[in-house]
Amino acid sequence: MRQPLRWPWPDFDVDDVLAPAIAVRVDVTETRAEVAEHWHRKGQLVFALGGGVTCRVPSGFWMVPPHCGVWIPGGMEHSNVATANARIFFVYIEPGAAELPDRCCTLSMSPLLRELIIELSDCAPDDARSGFLGRILLAELPLMPVQQLHLPISAEPRLRRIAEALAEDPADRSTLAQWTNRVALSESSLARLVVKETGLTFGRWRQQLHLIVALRELASGASVQQVSVDLGYGSVTAFITMFKKALGKPPAKYLNDISQNGGSAFVA
């Protein structure tokens, strides 16, 4: 079951607030929540203090594990899905207020930046303290390391169809040859198309999806064993081996290091 995220106050339009940076805290209840596709003038940093958030933009899926953030430039269409019991902060930034990338990216979040966001979310946008905290945040945010944890997709209709099917059922282990029957392409043509549009082979592309789903579910409290089953792995060991090979650490240590070190556990 999905439900809309509820703002802490009614009739809130981020683009009506002229402050260079504002932060909004949203706590998700027992069921996961979704913000449908939308856009706004301000850029948005999606930051998860607990649980996880998956952001979708026209070029891909982006995962926001705990203590990390995803930057979405202003004017870009996007949607967000949060795990149950997630603690989320949306930071909205006026265009040009900070030297931030003009593309979507994952940012490591230092302990200082985390505390700034939490404090800023407790301030009214026109409060003097809000302006002070916002200036420090805008100075610190561009210094955060850019990391890569996303699933590249494209507007190509056949690849989008495959991406949507795998996102809906990540345990689907259909081979590239089996997918060719569904999208009316030869195996060699589909293989070339995936590489051309995503920069990854089909196997690596699907593995990236598995990593995104795994981190989202592990962040929401699912066990490693349950996640391995949900992703269609034959054993927990096979799942852990894939995870460690891709991200350098087994799942439990990876998430623990993110929590302790402000996101620096990421491998680009």
Protein architecture, described:
This protein is α+β, with helices and mostly antiparallel strands and 268 residues long. The chain folds into two domains: 3-147, Regulatory protein AraC (Jelly Rolls); 151-261, Homeodomain-like (Arc Repressor Mutant, subunit A, Orthogonal Bundle). Helices cover 39% and strands 22% of the residues. The chain has nine helices and twelve strands. It has helices at 111-121, 128-140, 157-168, 176-183, 187-198, 202-219, 224-230, 236-247, 251-261, and strands spanning 3-4, 21-27, 33-38, 43-50, 53-57, 60-64, 68-72, 78-82, 87-93, 105-108, 146-147, 150-152. Strands 1-3-8-5-6-12 form a six-stranded mixed sheet, covered by helices on one side. It has a six-stranded antiparallel sheet with strand order 2-9-4-7-10-11, with helices on one face. The radius of gyration is 19 Å and the shape is globular. 37% of the residues are buried. InterPro entries: Homeodomain-like_sf (IPR009057), HTH_AraC (IPR018060), RmlC_Cupin_sf (IPR011051). Keywords: DNA-binding, Repressor, Transcription, Transcription regulation.
Please sum up the structure shown:
The chain is α+β, with helices and mostly antiparallel strands. 39% of the residues lie in helices and 22% in strands. The protein folds into 2 domains: 3-147, Regulatory protein AraC (Jelly Rolls, Sandwich), CATH 2.60.120; 151-261, Homeodomain-like (Arc Repressor Mutant, subunit A, Orthogonal Bundle), CATH 1.10.10.
